[in-house]
Amino acid sequence: MTKLCDASACVGCGACAQICPKNCFSMQLDKYGFWVPVVDRNVCVKCGLCQKACPALSPTYTLHEPHAVLCATLKNRPEVLKKSSSGGLAYALSHAIIKQGGVVFGAAYTPDMQVVHQEVTDLAGLSALQGSKYVQSHLNTTYQQAKKRLLEGKQVLFVGTPCQIAGLYTYLGNTPQGKLLTCDLLCGGAPAPGLFAKYIAYLEGKFKQKITCFNFRSKKYGYGYLHLLSTFNGRKSVLLTGKDSSFVRTLGLGYVRNSCFDCPFRSVQRVGDITAGDFWNLLVPVKQFEQGLSLGLVNTEKGHSFIKTHLAPVMQLKTCTLQDLKNSQNVSIRPTKKKPADYDEFFKQAKELSWPELTKRYIWPKSSFKHNLMDLLPPCVTSVLRRTILRVKLWRQQKAK
Hints:
It is built from 15 helices and 14 strands.
């Protein structure tokens, strides 16, 4: 069993594995803990379909200049907003597709806390897709399933990182795509599933209970900060602070997938019909901010038509500018910073050190004093600080006028 191509170029979408007629591929974790396609050369017939389906080797996707920049918040659905990481844009898209008899593909947790893409066919299933999951997801056979649904004449929404959307387009090839709607996510890089599994194992060992739900963006104390909430055995919930919340730092510190360091999608030009993310640094009333703000980029005519028809009635939409986008998500629309000098050393040590020791040696020292302090403070305190800062900014804005 050998890798198919250079791991530095592979985005791990698995399009090659899903298109292979001989099923000679398997998706396995590499030495860094990321999903990569591995091919059995004894079975491979060298048909070349895998290379044609690879978005890195045979890119057939199109990058679009956004038609509009929107700030969006779901109206009259407080229970949905509480579960959504930002303003509920992805949920609203999914809800509209399901109501039309369509299907939605997005990332969810398995019972053993792996992040995988799955198909949802009813409204009840949408809750599993809600919430940001800062881990590379395993796509399983969702490209195959999406193609099947399109050929059946169903509406399909596929939500994923830009490279996953690009992989879908390359995989589909000439398959009719009139009923396909894609939503790419503003992405700062993909943390490792293998590292996440180590982190989950540490938490389960510390609290001596199995984790049944994990929330990277709990709104228990409002919107705007990464409050990690872990639920054990479906009952006891713990807001993680200090070094217990350190996994999410691996993203900001650059311990992400190799392909993320040369990502063609980290720009204003987008691959999906619609782009969804958080709208940071937009000065709005505190009450509106606390509900959550989605940043939506309308990238194609298909996306524009869908939002105008299905989302305008259910979402509070505000047209913003490209400068607002840059002020909010500059990190996600510009090339990733260079790979950390200790990248290989970090992942090697991740296999040998305990999670607290890994955090103490690599994550905590490289994080800013501000981030370390905020993570040490109780979430209720950070929420008060966040609201106070926002009120001061609004007051200054009004005073300037």
